[in-house]
Amino acid sequence: MRKTILLIGLVAAAALSLGTGVLAWASLHRKSVLLGTPGAREIELTYLARLPAVPNGAREVQVWIPLARTGAEQEILRRQIDSPVPYSVHRDPEFGNDMLYLTLRPPVPQPLEISVRYQARLLGSNGPSASSPLKSAEKERYLQPEGLVVIDDEVRRRAQEATAGRSSWSDKARGIYDHVIRSMRYDKTIPGYGRGDTARACSVGAGNCTDFHSLFISMARATQIPSRFKIGLVVPPESSGSIPGYHCWAEFYAEGKGWTPLDASEAWKHPELKDHYFGTRDGNHFLVSLGRNIQLVPAPRNGPVNILFYPYAEVDGRPFDGVATEFRFKELTKRFAGRPTELRR
Fold it and tell me: What is the torsion angle, in degrees rounded to the nearest 10, for the CA atoms of residue 257, residue 261, residue 262 and residue 265?
């Protein structure tokens, strides 16, 4: 009886402690782990894009917006696109990312807002992870340099040092993961962060999640371990709210285990959870796109995009910044069944 009372008291104290400052974005992953967020939850998530006024004299505006798909992180039960202008949906030929595309000729209706609303089941550890051997073409793809994810002499040196004395892909990947956490610090005060530039990560030793995982992927590929980049959203373990921005993570292919996730930047922030963030699929991740140096369809004039998360726009063939975004979510109480569907207006 005394043990039971003590246990209840400890749980209550922990809950009270967790309740203090739970809205802090930097603690979101840690909070999810400590609260034991279920491996599968159903949510509604809305991706909003707002196109600002375009320059006077512009002749054509093109916009590409990523569209989430079913995968290891989530099952898309419904996808509803609301747009005041016609659009088309395409898929990139290399990674299989879906994207919405529209082209406008000024005057552009103002304000122009496009929303994509998802009903999704977040899978966490319940998500599939193919354990069958990689096909040779897929393996080769995830061993090559990829835009700013370079493989140079410095990357090879670091990879050799981090994997010395290790044999299996999993063991080598763990050595690289530990090296990245030791050699990097999470810092968004130095200009140039967030592009996933491996060379910058090596020289500066600081950045955000994009930079941490680009370094990991470069080093893993230098060691002949297939690895890949994923970017999306972390859905807070609350009933509803907004999400301030993206989060990214990496995966490597482990023999007999398939694609294995890791989150080096969160492990840097919370070293007590370093083992958890190596190999555990987070139940609050919502994947938006896979890969780097992504070929948009139809192809923009300026070639592949470094990372596909925010909308990409061109005005008369020149990159156009300023498309505003907003991300909202709410927990669903009603359960949806059946095959994924897409609704258009």
Answer: 170
Contact 340, 47 (CB under 8 A): no
The residues spanned by each domain of the chain are 51-117+294-325+332-344, 128-280
Kindly provide the b/e burial profile for residues 297-322, where b requires at least 16 CB atoms within 10 angstroms of the residue's own CB.
beebeeebbbbbbbbbbbbeeeebee
SS3 content of the chain, % helix, strand, coil (to 5): 25, 30, 40
Cβ atoms within 10 Å, residue 207: 26
Q: What is the mean pLDDT of residues 89-109?
A: 91
272-304 pLDDT, tens per residue? 999 999 999 989 999 999 999 999 999 999 989
Predicted pLDDT at 106: 75
Measure the CA–CA gap between 335 and 342, rounded to whole angstroms: 17
Topology at the third CATH level for domain 128-280: C8orf32 fold (3.10.620)
Distance CA 115, CA 48 (A): 4
Asked whether 194 and 307 are in contact (CB, 8 A), the reply is no
The pTM for the full model equals 0.85
In the chain, % of residues over pLDDT 70: 83
3-state SS, one letter per residue, for 256-281: CCEEEEECHHHHHHCHHHCCCCECCC
| CA separation for the pair 76, 121 (Å, rounded) | 7
Pairing of strands 74-82, 341-344: parallel
Strands (E) in the chain, as ranges, are: 41-51, 61-67, 74-82, 88-91, 98-104, 112-122, 185-186, 206-207, 227-234, 240-242, 247-254, 258-262, 285-290, 312-315, 318-319, 324-331, 341-344
The 10s digit of each residue's pLDDT in 29-67 is 444 443 334 447 999 999 999 998 887 888 999 999 999
Burial 125-139 (b: 16+ CB within 10 A, else e): eebeeeeeebeeeee
Predicted confidence (pLDDT) per residue in 165-190, tens digit: 999 999 999 999 999 999 999 999 99
pLDDT at site 131: 60
Overall average pLDDT of the 100-112 stretch: 84
